[in-house]
Design goal:
Layout (H helix, E strand, L loop, with lengths): L2 E7 L5 E2 L15 E7 H9 L19 E2 L4 H7 L3 E2 L3 E6 L5 H13 L5 E5 L4 H10 L8 E4 L3 H10 L6 E5 L16 H18 L2 E6 L12 H5 L2 E7 L5 E9 L7 E7 L2 E4 L4 H4 L10 E8 L2 E13 L7 E4 L3 H15 L6 E7 L11 H13 L7 E3 L2 E2 L5 E2 L4 H10 L4 E4 L13 E4 L11
Parallel strand pairs: 6-10, 6-11, 7-8, 7-9, 9-10, 17-18, 19-22, 22-23
Antiparallel strand pairs: 1-2, 1-3, 4-5, 11-12, 12-13, 13-14, 15-16, 16-18, 20-21
Protein name: DNA repair protein RadA
GO cellular component, one term: cytosol
Organism: Orientia chuto str. Dubai
Length: about 450
């Protein structure tokens, strides 16, 4: 059987027949990986005899696919209401973060509600899966278990049990190999081929598919980038071994909102969902220390209150330190420059430490106002008004720009006892008997009035 070499970019999935140090499509350096491909694959495509397909139009009624709703509400939220039949989901995360645990819990829960699940593992034996299920207290459930890595065996097993199963879990896609491809499991060609066969089977027999994917050292899903385009939903399970909580985030979702998150804590019995994450990330609604403010963030459609902490100390080195945890260090440099020019607070001779409490990572620019308030409070050694939250983007001119979805942020703050809302351009004409105060901050200079 003749074979030929090709080089696939791990970043964009483009193929070239010669190695280059830099991908010609996405300009990424050192991203081309060698694949050995059998010519028989291409010959089969060339000589294949297909069937005439049925053509549909948009004006015809669609077949509504009912969602498979589990009792794990945080997972349902991220998926947009539950699992959809004929859909393919890819979930990634750091090793040991809880991907397999979450999926085993999902299968166990669904199996108690007349939804049959097939859990296929290429990393663990059946006995190892049973031991893990025993530790999680899931031994009384009817989960179907298989340990396999050959894609042909897996496809045959799924077809033989297609009348009995509704969900198939593959743990993980990097361990599955196709013997027709002369490269080891986990290579770009193997991952792409195995995923394509599984996704095609999913659409054909009408089941849901969840594949676990490994990630690289920089946090990206391993394998070809095209894998993320092939599936319907891409989920990331985020967290740290230093914290109990785990965030399940939807990076892509054809059947729901992107950037939606579900919050869990890792306990002895597995992942436990957190219905009100704001209470987990803030200690109380009274600011008792200087340099501390509360930010009303938005994660997808969910408002979460987080604590922003700043510490400023004199520096005894030529270049003062700028340390940031949970936020963009470049954004901090911009806020410090705006404070120096537009507010009159120069911190060039001081070390600045900024932290998002609880280990949460914030990316939205609406945190600017809370960061500025914390820095000003830390520099003046004065506490901010109690029961206060801040949100708003700061421009280079020092003006405060409006944040998205202010109503959801404010309602979450009020629910937790916050009464002073510092934002911009907000008015609620429909509210009566307000038990909170709105402070519309137009420019960063107005923060002087609250200290």
């Amino acid at each position: 059987m003749k074979t030929k070499k090709q080089y696939t970019c791990t970043n964009c999935g483009s193929i070239s027949y010669k190695w280059y140090g830099r991908c010609s499509e996405c300009n990424e350096w050192n991203s081309l990986i060698e694949d050995v491909v059998s010519n028989s694959i291409y010959n089969n495509i060339t000589n294949s005899m297909g069937t005439n397909l049925t053509i549909s139009s948009l004006d015809k009624e669609i077949d509504e696919h009912p969602r498979i709703v589990s009792s794990i509400n945080e997972l349902n939220r991220v998926l947009g209401g539950g699992l959809i039949l004929e859909s393919a989901i890819l979930i990634g995360g750091d090793p040991g973060i809880g991907k397999s645990t979450l999926l085993l819990q999902l299968c166990a829960q669904l199996s108690t509600s007349a939804t049959s699940c097939l859990y296929i593992s290429g990393e663990e034996s059946v006995n190892q899966i049973k031991l893990r299920a025993q530790r999680l207290g899931l031994t009384n459930t009817q989960i179907k278990l298989v340990s396999a890595t050959n894609i042909h065996d897996i496809i045959t097993t799924i077809k033989a049990n297609k009348q009995e199963i509704h969900l198939v879990v593959i743990d993980s896609i990097q361990t599955i190999y196709n013997p027709d491809i002369t490269s080891i499991a986990g290579t770009t060609s193997q991952v792409r081929a195995a995923a394509q066969m599984l996704i095609s089977l999913t659409k054909l027999i009408g089941i849901a598919l969840i594949m676990v994917g490994h990630i690289t050292k920089d946090g990206q899903l391993a394998g070809p980038k095209i894998l993320e385009h092939m599936v319907d939903t891409v989920l990331y399970l985020e967290g740290s071994s230093n914290y109990q909580y785990r965030l399940l985030r939807a990076i892509k979702n054809r059947f729901g909102k992107t950037n939606e998150i579900g919050v869990f804590t890792m306990e002895q019995s597995g992942l436990i969902e957190v219905s009100n994450p704001s209470e987990m990330f803030i200690l109380n609604n009274e600011t008792s220390y200087s340099g501390t403010s509360v930010f009303a963030s938005m994660e997808g459609s969910r408002p979460i209150l987080v604590e922003i902490q700043a510490l400023i100390s004199p520096s005894y080195i030529p270049t003062p330190r700028r340390s940031v945890v949970g936020w963009d260090s470049n954004r901090l440099s911009m806020i410090l420059a705006v404070l120096a020019v537009r507010y009159g607070l120069t911190l060039a001779a001081y070390e600045v430490y900024l932290s998002v409490a609880g280990g949460l990572k914030i990316t939205e620019p609406a945190v600017d106002l809370a960061v500025a308030a914390s820095l000003i409070s830390a520099a003046s050694n004065k506490t901010l008004p109690p029961h206060s939250i801040f949100f708003g983007e700061i421009s280079l001119s020092g003006e405060i720009r409006k944040a998205t979805q202010p109503d959801l942020r404010i309602n979450e703050a009020i629910k937790l006892g916050f009464k002073n809302i510092f934002c911009t351009d907000y008015s609620n004409n429909t509210a009566t008997n307000l038990n909170y105060n709105i402070y519309n901050i137009k420019h960063i200079k107005q923060l002087k009035n609250i200290l």
